[in-house]
Amino acid sequence: MRGMLSFMILFLLSKRSMYGQELAEEIGRRKGEKPNPGTIYPALKDLTASRLVSVESHGRMTVYRLTKSGRTTLAKAQKYFARAYGDILVASKK
Asked: For the chain, which terminus, N or C, has the lower number of CB atoms within 10 Å?
């Protein structure tokens, strides 16, 4: 898994399944800037190829779901980020 975008996608999909536009809008709300299709869809393709995310078609809509492997990877990434950046977050609250 590479980058914060992939981490954010896995995190959001851990809450509920979403389609690409929903993911982009939610990331935009949280980050202040909505990722463009040329950014989010390649990330989703990589996550799908890595079997961290599964894809299901519902007519014209493509729904993305977190796989069991995706949940495991997300948990590892959360531990890594807490270890690597936790002191920065704590320091900023003082």
From this structure: C
Asked if residues 47 and 53 have their Cβ atoms less than 8 Å apart, the reply is: yes
- The per-residue pLDDT for range 13-41, each reduced to its tens digit, is 999 999 999 999 999 999 888 888 899 99
Helices 37-49 and 20-31 sit at what angle, rounded to 10 degrees? 120
Range of the domain at 73: 3-93
Helix, strand, coil distribution of the chain in percent, nearest 5: 70, 15, 15
- Number of structural domains found in the chain: 1
Query: What span, in angstroms and rounded, lies between the C-alpha atoms of 57 and 61?
Result: 6
pTM as predicted: 0.85
- Which CATH number is 55's domain given? 1.10.10.10
Report CA-CA distances (Å) from 5 to 22, 40, 57, 59, 84. 14, 8, 23, 26, 17
